[in-house]
Amino acid sequence: MSSNFDWVHESFLVKLMKRIHGDDAVGMASQLAYFFLLSLFPLLIFLVTLLPYLPISQNDILNSIGSFAPPESMKLIEDNLTEIMKGSRPLLSLGILGTIWSASNGLNAIIKAFNRAYDVPETRNYIMARFVSILLTLAMLFVFVIALMLPVFGKQIGLFLFDALGMTKEFLSVWIALRWIITLLIVLLVFTVLYWIAPNKRLKCLTVLPGAVFATCGLGIVSWGFSFYVEHYGNYANTYGSLGGIIVLMIWFYLSGIIIIIGGELNAMRSEKNNPKCE
Asked: Where would you find the membrane-spanning parts of this chain (predicted)?
C-alpha cells in the first residue's frame, strides 16, 4: 500500500538531494551570487543607455527590481543607479561592449552550473561559450525591457478597450491582477529559455518546463519570505553597518542561485529518466 510512496521518496527526493550534494549546488550557488553581484550594475548601466529611446523611466526599473529584491537592498541599488544616471554617458559610449561582457558573467556561471547538472563537458570553445552567455544576457534584457513597457502600453490599450465596452471603472482591479499574471508568465518564459539554451546539450523546449515552473514559483516564494524576514527580524544594518545592504543582496542572490540550480537538477533528472542511454 505504501510502496508507491516509498518509490517517490527513494527515487525522486533522495536522488535529488544526492544530486544537489554531489554537484555541490551550495558551492555553485555561492559562485552565482558573486557573479550576479558583479553583473547587476553593468546590467543597470546597459539599461540606462536605453532609457532615452524607450517609454520607461528609472522608477520603472526600480519598481520592477523591487518586486523581488529585499527592501534593504533597494536603497543600495537606487543610490548606485542614481550615480550611474549622473555621469556615466561618456563611459557608456566608449565601453558598451565591455559593459555587456561584464554583465554576461552571471549567465556564464549559470551555463557552468547547468553543464554540471547534466554531467556534460563544455565542448564549446571559450569564445563560443561566452558568445552564448552574451546572447542570453541580451535576450534576458530584451524580455526585461518588454516587461517594463507592458505597464505603459498595456494600461493604455486596456483603458481604450474597457472604455469602449463601458467598463472603465472595473479595469483597474482587472489590470492589477493581469499585471501579476503577466509578470509571472514573463519570468516563466525567461527561465524556460534559460534552461533550454544554456546547457551544452540538445534539449526540447517543453522538456525544461518542470524546472522553469519550479524556479518561477521558488524565486517568488524565496524572495517574499526573505524580504519578510529582513524587514521584520533581520538586523543586518546593526551587524554589518553600511555593508548591510550588500550582505542582504548577496544572501538574496545566493538563495536565488540555489533555486535556479535545483531547477536545472530537476530538468537533468527528467532528461536522464526519459533518455537513460543518452550521453
From this structure: 32-54, 91-111, 131-154, 174-198, 205-230, 242-263
